[in-house]
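Please go through the protein record below and explain what the tokens say about the fold. Record follows.
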Amino acid sequence: MTARRTASIAAILAPLLLAACEPASAPAMLGTLERDRLELIAQAQEEIKTMHVREGARVAQGDTLVELDSTAIDAQLAQARARASEARARLAELEHGPRAEQIAAARAQLAEDEARVVVETKEYDRQLDLVKRKLVSQSNVDRQRAARDGAIAARRRSAAQLEELETGTRSEQVDQARENVASSDAAVQSLEIDAARLVIRAPRKGFIDALPYKLGERPPQGAPVVVMLADDAPYARVYLPEPLFSQMHVGDDVSVQIDGADHAYAGRVRFLSAQAAFTPYYALTQRDRSRLSYLMEVTLTEPAAKELPTGVPVEVRTPAIGGGR
């Protein structure tokens, strides 16, 4: 009876002893499988003119997804280009300097004014002689003096204009015209960028997750028009318990079990948050701090992982950790 009881106790204790000798299994960290989510916004409050994709479609980098109405900005762009063309024409005119015909006209005007000075001066002398002989009044002499002085002033003006044309354009005027051209070209370039942004293109390869607005709608400026998921390797977004926080590092290898998959996938820690996801540790007791969690992201390194669906539940496990806290 004693031997039989001893054998029964040994049979019960044997599995417990074996379990105690095995290393502690690593706790599972729960989360979901994610991909980079890209929200492409409307740069202006314009009507959706064309939609080139549907939800779920795969797209390559640079593919056109949605086009907004560009009528208003096209008009602004045409006006800015006209101003830039005018500025360039003005600069070319200043760089070339005055035309030969302008110089010839200025010389002819100077000759005409010089002849007028001669005529008015002679008439003034004649009026002086007449007033001495008391044949005309002094007022006639005064009027003729004014006409002579006016002719002399006109000759000086014509001479100055001719000198200005022969000297050519001032360097300051040319520099000012060049700055005006640069400013006009910059305005055109800015509007061209704004016009290009009305055509929404895929910044990366991936697939369309959502199209919040329909054809013909006018989304507000800044609203997401296309939501797409990047077609890169997915990553597990999980929460790391506080007792394991000091033992995990960026670059560590882990295993990722996908819900519904037959085998675990290899993964590597790519991000580990330094801030607890919940109550700050300094507000908790030592016992409560063990309940904190830290956000961790794990990239799946196997090529086959690219075909896994986004949002599926996952379990991330680390190599067995012995000892405990």
